[in-house]
Amino acid sequence: MSARRIFFDPDKARGPQEEPEVGGQKKEVGTDITAEVTRDKAPEALSVSALLGRVKAALSAQLPRQLTVVGEISNFRRPSSGHLYFSLKDGEAQVPAVMFRSAAARLRFTPTDGLEVFATGRVDVYEAQGKLQLYVESLTPKGAGALELAYRQLVEKLQGEGLFDPAHKRPVPRFPQTLCVITSPTGAALRDIRRTLSRRWPTARVYLIPVAVQGEGAAGQIARALNLASANAEALGLDTVILARGGGSIEDLWSFNEEIVARAIYDCAVPVVCGVGHEIDTTIADLAADLRAPTPTGAAELAVPDKAEAARLLAQLEARSARTLRGQLQQARSALASAQRSEVFRNPLHRVRVLHQRLDELAARLRGRLIQRHGQASARIERLEGRLRWQLGGLSKRKGDALAERVARLSNVNPIHRIRLARADLDAQGRQMLTLLRAQLASGAGSVKRLDRTLEALSYRSILRRGFSVTRDGAGRVLRRADQLAPGDVLRTELAEGEVRSTVDSSTPRRPTDETPPPPPAPRKAPKPKKSRPEDGPTLFPLNGPDA
Amino acid sequence: MTKKQPTFEQALEKIEEIVAGIESGQIGLEESVARYGEGRELIEYCRKVLDEAEKKIQVLTNPDGDRLEPAGELEEPEDEQA
Question: CA dihedral defined by A211, A214, A218, A221, rounded to 10 degrees?
Fold first, then answer.
């Protein structure tokens, strides 16, 4: 009996004919019916299904097909089936609610416990459990807009996963050769990007992957385009991807706030520069991109350098290297000049002579001393000789001769003689040193002159730029006269940009026949290419490319 | 022309390296002159790259699988002069 009262609300069972306001006279009508059922006893008992059937009929008769309930979400569950289950409650009551997968798929935000929402749908009985249930078709957050909430929720989620991590952001190539633009083929964004690229960096190759940038399926197309660009990055030689869309409402820009787009950007093999909407719009795509620009034009500007700036940089580098080199040459020249001016080179024998002089002095002193001692020794020998003669008296003549010979040998070790020898040796060494110094000086001067000439040779290219050209024969010699050539000879004409190869025509005017060798004046057509000298032209540099 | 051309970026890096080498004063004069010549050639090459004519935008399509291929040039917009 009590169970029956719970499920069978007499208010709702009266049928559509009376249309009572909630409240009103329900009590008396209710008691009427209860009384009737009680009176009829058992034979009139309803099956459970029949009961619920009547309840359902009563409900659908009494309530509009669709209504909107405001309440707080609680006990939210999302099982793998994809259906959403939760309760809506206020201070006093709660009602179970279900949102089927198809409806849930249209939700842009994620319902969470505690969130106040407007739930639109119908009320019905869930027979399996005999309970009243709200079948929700759409949910709207109370307060913030659904998109705003969805945006906040997704930012939070992807941030937690590190999709916006600065450490993951890759540098965009400074001088890209190939770019891929992902945008609408008809939008203003493409026009702006194209204009900017052609103004700043026309040398780049540009590809377009056309996509829808708003409406149903746009996010899928954009994500797919990013995946394809990533997969083909190597084959196409892509340096950078530009993802862009012009300004619009938050609904218009919504595709760029979708999770699949953010993930495709994060996973892209090449850096992505994003420029969506106007300055104030920051989409999730912007947050996930490697570089983010306020507008499509801004994205193109960040993706490529300015041609004029690059040209200035080249000019600077050119000037810097030329200046340094000129400075080095100047330095070498003055170092050489100062070496030539130095005492050693001006008067290379000076030091040798100083030494000589000192040697002479010492030799003189030594000789004086020796002569003195020699004199003393001689006197002593003479004295001893006299004493010997006196003592030995008539010693044999032969012994006397031997003695004389020993005396003579003694005088042969005269130190003066040895000093003379040493002096001659010193002279020879001095001369040798001088020769060596001269040779070094000459070779240094030669190499500076050579470098000087090559640096000057470089400047002839500026003449070529004015429209002149240099013509060489097959061996690379610069041609000055027509008679340096025979028909069939190869001509190589160097222009400011590149080189032309041609052959001398057989009807050369100054030549009677083809077979006659050239007249004597300058038989310069050597059989083998001579070793090139600087006079032949600026050949030290690979002016004609690697084959020169 | 038969050799694989360096990219603008590679050429520029090489030039910067050459200039730094010359400026360091660590290399001999003859070597400096040689590198200077090489640097000049690279600078000329870079200038040529900068002066290249603008290329038309190629539209990519996805004929099958994960392949992308150029399907033609994008037409010039009408309002370019506007």
Answer: 20
Closest by Cβ to B19, choosing from A206, A317, A329:
A317
Would you say A292 and A285 are in contact if contact means Cβ atoms under 8 Å apart? no
The rounded radius of gyration (Å) of the Cα atoms in chain A is 56
Put simply, the chain B residues between 23 and 52 with a CB less than 8 A from any chain A CB are: 23, 25, 29-30, 32-33, 36-37, 39-41, 43, 46-50, 52
Measure the CA–CA gap between A452 and A457, rounded to whole angstroms.
9
Predicted pLDDT of residue A102: 92
E-state strands within A184-332: 205-210, 240-245, 272-276, 291-293
Q: What is the DSSP letter of A70?
A: E
3-state secondary structure of A72: strand
The 10 Å Cβ neighbour count of residue A144 is 14
C-alpha neighbours within 13 Å on the C-beta side of residue A462: 5
- Residue in A291, A265, A274, A306 with CA at minimum distance from that of residue A189: A274
Contact A310 B50 (CB under 8 A): yes
Distance of alpha carbon B7 from alpha carbon B52, whole angstroms: 13
Cα Rg, chain B, nearest whole Å: 21
Contact (Cβ atoms closer than 8 angstroms) between residue A140 and residue A146: yes
pTM metric for this prediction: 0.57
Residues 6+ apart with CB under 8 A from A49: A127
Residue A349's pLDDT is 76
What are the chain A neighbours of B39 within 8 Å (beta carbons)? Answer: 317-318, 321
Q: At what angle do helices A259-267 and A218-231 cross, to 10 degrees?
A: 10
Instruction: Write down the mean pLDDT value for chain A.
Output: 80
Q: Look-up: residue for tokens 């130190």?
A: A415
**d(C-alpha A405, C-alpha A271), whole Å:** 108
Which of B38, B58, B60 to mutate: most A Cβ within 10 Å?
A: B60
Q: How far does chain B reach from its first CA to its final CA, in angstroms?
A: 40
Terminal Cα-to-Cα distance of chain A (whole angstroms): 113
**DSSP class of A183:** E
Enter the ipTM: 0.83
Structure confidence at residue A192 (pLDDT): 94
A478: which strand partners? A472
What are the backbone angles phi and psi of residue A532, rounded to the nearest 5°?
A: -75, 140
Q: Is A492 helix (H, G, I), strand (E, B) or coil?
A: strand
Kindly determine whether residue B46 and residue A314, on different chains, have CB atoms separated by under 8 Å.
yes
Which parts of A191-287 are beta strand (E)?
205-210, 240-245, 272-276
Least confident of A205-219, A344-358, A408-422, A442-456: A408-422
Report phi then psi at A220, rounded to 5: -60, -45
Helix (H) or strand (E) segment spanning residue A167:
none
Closest CA to A245 of A268, A216, A211: A211
Neighbouring C-beta atoms of residue B37, cutoff 10 Å = 19
pLDDT score of B15 more than 90: yes
Q: Which of A220, A22, A55 is nearest to A130 (CA)?
A: A55
Whole-angstrom CA distances from A428 to A166, A407, A424 are: 78, 35, 6
DSSP 3-state of A176: coil
How many residues are given for chain B? 82
Q: What mean pLDDT is predicted for residues A52-60? A: 90
Taking CA–CA distances from A231, the nearest residue in chain B reads B66
The C-alpha atoms of residue A146 and residue A148 are separated, in whole angstroms, by 5
